[in-house]
Specification:
The protein is mainly α. The protein is built from three helices and no strands. The longest helix has 25 residues. It is flat, with a radius of gyration of 16 Å. Keywords: Membrane, Transmembrane, Transmembrane helix.
């Protein structure tokens, strides 16, 4: 668990930091208002379950359903937008 979390944080932190040094990263309203909060809440909730149960349950279908709700929620809230 620590290896995965550490790798993800290092990957995003270092890459985003280096890219932001070269050119600032614009973050649009849908990302700030929906995608980042929902993704953060999901990671925190799943991490809390892992830390309290100390095991990785077989939640494949549940996680896929949660991802489908995430995609559907973003689509219903913001529709399909393509930015250049």
């Amino acid at each position: 668990m620590g290896n995965v979390v550490g790798s993800v944080l290092a990957f995003f932190g270092l890459n985003a930091g280096i890219i932001a040094l070269i050119r600032p990263l614009p973050i649009d309203t849908p990302t700030r208002g929906f995608y980042l909060p929902v993704a953060t809440a999901t990671v925190l909730a799943f991490s809390a379950v892992l830390l309290t149960t100390r095991q990785l349950p077989r939640w494949g279908i549940g996680l896929l359903a949660l991802y489908a709700v995430f995609l559907l929620g973003g689509y219903l809230r913001y529709g399909v937008t393509i930015t250049e």
